[in-house]
Write a structure and sequence with these properties.
Elements: H1 5-30, E1 31-35, E2 41-46, E3 52-59, H2 73-79, H3 93-114, H4 122-140, H5 147-154, E4 158-164, E5 169-176, H6 180-192, H7 199-215, H8 218-230, H9 244-247, H10 252-262, E6 268-274, H11 278-289, E7 312-318, E8 323-329, H12 338-349, H13 355-363, E9 367-376, E10 384-391, H14 397-413, H15 418-434, H16 439-453, H17 458-468, H18 471-481, E11 487-494, E12 505-508
Parallel strand pairs: 2-6, 7-11
Antiparallel strand pairs: 1-2, 3-5, 3-6, 4-5, 7-12, 8-10, 8-11, 9-10
Length: 509
């Protein structure tokens, strides 16, 4: 029997409870969770399809947790991830420790003179800078570059990486199963015994990253101003990479304090997925991660973004590709309507059948791209639902705004179709389950859901939330957030280049 797409969806929906139960029951049999006495959460999921495993370490601290005046500090740990430990990456750690302490003394003196608003002595500043550089050079003598990564790769590790978001920091790679103990030693050492080795060298790398991603990119500058304008109080208003003035002055001493506060076992979840048996793996993990000193779980960001009572806008005038984006404040991921926001994202943006693509790109032919996305720049705290469009030559951001608002108004005044709702639910279910197909994706999902909900099983319960979304929910949520006073817009308007004109101009109003 050949089923039509909609009939296929309802057929699958009828089977959903059975599929859900079998999947959850299967994972429950293969998944073991243990919270160690020091507070660290370990998850082991057995998947013996191939003799490899993947791990995902999630630290519940991201750029939103940066201290005032130290934006970009959480991001620094992504760059420091593979610098080594007290035993890896050094020829003589006791001597290196002394040398690194001298670097901090020299930097503190140089920084104090540099920060003087008046009375700065140029000759003294130059002398202090030279002393700081000399101390760095002395500490560098003990460094074995890239040793941490090389040891992992020589033992079969692939995909070594780390990432930082506004909400968390992640570390991950895959490795042969017979190297589980080596990995446990390396990862636990990185958490318990980090060394802020080559910190200022990496700080320079981050500054260059900022110059490339933001300062030299019109779109990057616009997005930075867009978020800074949308948020008045919450740390989401700061760029994850950091403000230039903060990056240029943050110290290894501050990084060490950040690590001691946030990289405590109670703030970390580690998931291991692959050809490992929990009965054999868990004792190994306990032996290496158990001795990490405990500490109190840090409090979440206390600042709550106040309601927005007026539309805000950013306009950049520059001889570059025009761009338009607008964002609306929405609740965090725990909101009962979270799946309704996912539905709106799917209906607006998922593929060539999506409303924004059909209207702006295909039918009107005024945009090269048009999409919406939710939970920007993060979703641990209330974020933004954003919609953007890139005008084709001869078209303007103002046209993008008008066309986007027409689509938003349709969402507010007319129910979506049965087919659109069905496509969302089918794709959402498929995307969620597809993410469990490989060890890396599953380890990521287990760690993330355990961190966010305190129970990895919420991963499967989300299927129920997806199935429960109705057309009325979508229309209700659209009317709740898509209001003028809740909107922040940003655009790049093309202006012809002139010899006298500055590189860019504009601002928030």
């Amino acid at each position: 029997m050949r089923l039509r797409p909609l009939a296929t969806f309802y057929f699958l929906l009828a089977l959903a409870p059975l599929v859900y139960a079998q999947d959850l029951a299967s994972f429950e049999k293969r998944t073991t969770v243990k919270i160690l006495p020091n507070g660290l959460t370990l998850i082991v999921c057995e998947r013996p399809a191939a003799p490899v495993f993947s791990y995902f370490t999630m630290v519940d601290a991201g750029s939103a947790d940066d201290a005032q005046g130290a934006s970009g500090l959480a991001h620094m740990f992504e760059h420091m991830a593979f610098k080594g430990t007290t035993e890896i990456g050094t020829t003589d750690y006791p001597a290196e420790k002394v040398a690194l302490a001298k670097v901090e003394v020299a930097y503190a003196a140089y920084d104090a003179e540099l920060r003087k608003l008046y009375g700065q002595d140029p000759a003294k500043l130059d002398s202090l800078r030279k002393a700081f550089l000399a101390a760095q050079a002395e500490a560098q003598k003990y460094v074995i570059p890239n040793q941490f990564s090389e040891i992992a790769e020589e033992n079969g590790a692939v995909g070594l990486n780390a990432s930082t978001s506004e909400d968390s920091t992640q570390f991950f790679w895959s490795m042969p199963s017979n190297r589980l103990e080596l990995w446990a030693y390396m990862e636990s050492s990185r958490i318990a015994h980090p060394v802020e080795r080559e910190f200022y060298k990496e700080r320079d790398v981050v500054q260059e990253e900022r110059r490339m991603r933001i300062d030299s990119s019109p779109t990057g500058r616009m997005l930075e101003q867009f978020v800074a304008t949308a948020y008045t109080a919450h740390p989401y208003r700061r760029p994850g990479v950091g403000w230039e003035s903060d990056i240029s002055q943050v110290s290894a001493t501050e990084a060490d304090a950040f690590h001691r506060k946030y990289y405590v076992p109670a703030n970390i979840v580690i998931a291991v997925v692959g050809d490992v048996k929990a009965t054999e793996a868990m004792p190994i993990l306990e032996r290496y991660f158990g001795p990490i000193p405990p500490g109190p779980k840090p409090e979440d960001v206390a600042t709550v973004e106040p309601p927005q009572f007026a539309e805000k806008s950013v306009v950049i005038k520059e001889a570059t590709q025009p761009f338009y984006i607008e964002g609306y404040h929405r609740p965090d991921y725990r909101d009962p309507d979270d799946s309704a926001y996912d539905a709106i994202t799917d209906i607006f943006s998922n593929g060539r059948t999506a409303r924004l693509y059909r209207a702006l790109v295909r039918d009107q032919a005024i945009a090269a791209e048009a999409e919406g996305f939710s939970g920007y720049p993060g979703d641990k705290y209330p974020g933004l639902f954003a919609v953007y469009a890139v005008p084709l030559p001869g078209h303007t951001p103002a046209e993008m705004r008008t066309a986007i608002h027409k689509q938003i108004d349709l969402l507010k005044t007319t129910d979506i179709t049965d087919e659109e709702l069905a496509r969302f639910k089918t794709r959402a279910r498929a995307d969620l389950l597809r993410g469990l197909a490989d060890n890396e994706g599953l380890a990521h999902s287990l760690a993330e859901y355990q961190t966010r909900f305190g129970d990895w099983r919420q991963l499967f319960r989300d299927l129920d939330k997806i199935d429960a979304v109705t057309k009325a929910d979508v229309r209700r949520v659209a009317n709740k957030i898509f209001i003028d006073t809740n909107r922040t817009t940003a655009e790049i308007d093309f202006v012809p280049p002139t010899d006298k004109a500055p590189a860019s101009s504009g601002g928030a109003r």
